Amino acid sequence: MAMACAGALSSMAAATTGLLPRVPTSQSSRCLALPHLPPRPFAPTLRNHCKNFSDSKRFSSFQVKASSTEETSIEDLLADLKEKWDKLENKSTVLLYGGGAIVAVWLSSVVVSAINSVPLLPKIMELVGLGYTGWFVYRYLLFKSGRKELAEDIEQLKKKIAGSE
């Protein structure tokens, strides 16, 4: 049996050898089945093409120039923030809440990276997120009554945060 397989393989190799082009021994590192192709003519790549343009030509449609109205609006914003900061009585409380928010964001980042390191858990969390998104769309966004309810809830939350309620 082994002798018959070896004979069949050697006869197939002899039959296919006549189909392959002969390659000189100096090019033995190349694949025998593919002929040598000439080098491609110079074709500019995107990187070379972009080097030819100056920055002003490339980003001319994205240039934004500051106007006096923008400068005054920034100054007004800073003056308004300074005025509100001066009106605050408990500045230490605001700083404490701000620091607590930064710590909470950092801690949540640590927890998420720890969850991400567990092999199966990220995919499960992704499915949970997709499920919640689907539920939220069905509950609040799909029908007019749900959208109205969501708008009312948001307005109520705004009043609660602003202290109007």
UniProtKB/TrEMBL annotation:
UniProt topology in membrane: Multi-pass membrane protein
Protein's cellular compartments: Membrane
Transmembrane segment boundaries: 94-115
Keywords: Membrane, Transmembrane, Transmembrane helix
Main location: membrane
Keyword Transmembrane carried by entry: yes
Domain Cyanobacterial aminoacyl-tRNA synthetase CAAD: from-to ranges: 80-163
Domain of life: Eukaryota
Pfam families assigned: CAAD
GO CC annotations on file: chloroplast thylakoid membrane
Protein name stated in the entry: Cyanobacterial aminoacyl-tRNA synthetase CAAD domain-containing protein
